[in-house]
Amino acid sequence: MRYDPEYAGWAFSTEKRMEKNVVRQMIRANYERQRQMKANDPKKPAWKNALFLVLIFAAVAGVFIAALSANTLAAVALFGCIFFALGAKSLVTGRSSAPPQRGLLVRGSGLVLILMGLCVILPVLLSGRIGQAKAFILMGGALFTVAGLFAAAYAIRTAYHSGANYGLPVEAQCIGYVHKIVSSRNSSHVEAAEVFEYDYDGEHYTAVNSVFRRTPAAEVGEYAELRINPDMPDEFFYSGAKSTALANFIGILFSFAFVAAGCFLLWGALSGRLTIPQNEEKPRSNNVTVSGGSELTDAQIQQEIGADKKDWEVCLYRVMDKRLIEDEYVVNLSGGLPVSCTKDVYDALKLGGDYIVITDSDCENVYWFLPMESYIYTGDHIVSDFRRQN
């Protein structure tokens, strides 16, 4: 990138490492510069930042409240909204105090966060149609795919820029280093990058290596071969700072592994081949305590569903939604269980009604619906209550 001697975030020197007293001065100057920029920047009034933080904290609190109240979908949706909001802020605002490449990185990160937020929110919105289990699988597949694609794009770009065929070769001289403060939560340190001078196509350029490190590779006065971008001669790749071919290969390999895992999950969710086993603990009781109604025994259930079906469960469900989807009658039960049924059963089930439901051991196939107000189960099976799961 082009060397700008007026940029306050850099300090030029012909020494690779700064003395401790100079580093302390740079840290204090950097802190003061950041404070002044925040105070004087009209594009970032304090009340807007405060409002944004309040909204984020409110969303985080909503996630915890929804999780504690067992409303899993609401908690996940709010989590996705946080990703979306952070990404939108990064995409729109960027950072005016950073070099151009830094602003591009901030906007790119914002786009990734927005897509990840959508990968969380959209499956939640579709959960009423496809079921909660399938929505979570779809969500995981989308997140893996998006993260893998962006990581693969970055890894391929890095590998291309570090390759021998990138750009045009130019001989350049290292004239010094720019030092910058890199701050973390608990500490700050100085990193540096080489400043090179070179001529290309009749023009003289002074540019900074985009790779900052604690100890730069080139020495002052040393000549080195740069491979510049002919469309943007201020951009170059310096072989002394390139990643190894093995590191690039591993990065690309892991990126495509993420994409493959995401595509597999998407395929499994859309085709219905993958499901989430429901092994978690559920509120259980040995008897359904309702007032009035007829006695329901294991023998009656076995006779109704057939002698060949030995492995069955007794569950309590609430009818959350009823839909006619492409000539198929679908009932969505609490807990995210979609059930296809006949028209007679569809018409008999009441929206919001509670039912004793006889299913197979995996809770995938429903054999029998019975209204809770009409029956008392007195058999030996343990009853699983799913009525409060949204």
Structure description:
The chain is of the alpha+beta class. Among the domains are: 42-95 and 98-162 and 246-271, no CATH class; 284-385, OB fold (Dihydrolipoamide Acetyltransferase, E2P). 43% of the residues lie in helices and 26% in strands. Strands 7, 9, 10, 11, 12, 13 and 15 form a 7-stranded mixed sheet that branches. Strands 1, 2, 3, 4, 5 and 6 form a 6-stranded antiparallel sheet that branches. Strands 8-14 form a two-stranded parallel ribbon. The chain is elongated. The protein starts with 10 loop residues before the first strand and ends in a 5-residue tail after the last strand.
List keywords for this structure.
390 residues, alpha+beta, OB fold (Dihydrolipoamide Acetyltransferase, E2P), six-stranded antiparallel sheet, 8 helices
Produce the secondary structure layout.
Blueprint: E1 11-13, H1 20-40, H2 46-68, H3 72-93, H4 100-130, H5 132-161, E2 168-183, E3 188-200, E4 203-208, E5 223-229, E6 232-238, H6 245-271, E7 284-285, E8 294-296, H7 298-305, E9 312-325, E10 328-333, E11 337-341, H8 343-348, E12 354-360, E13 366-371, E14 375-377, E15 383-385
Parallel strand pairs: 8-14, 9-15
Antiparallel strand pairs: 1-2, 2-3, 2-5, 3-4, 5-6, 7-15, 9-10, 9-12, 10-11, 12-13
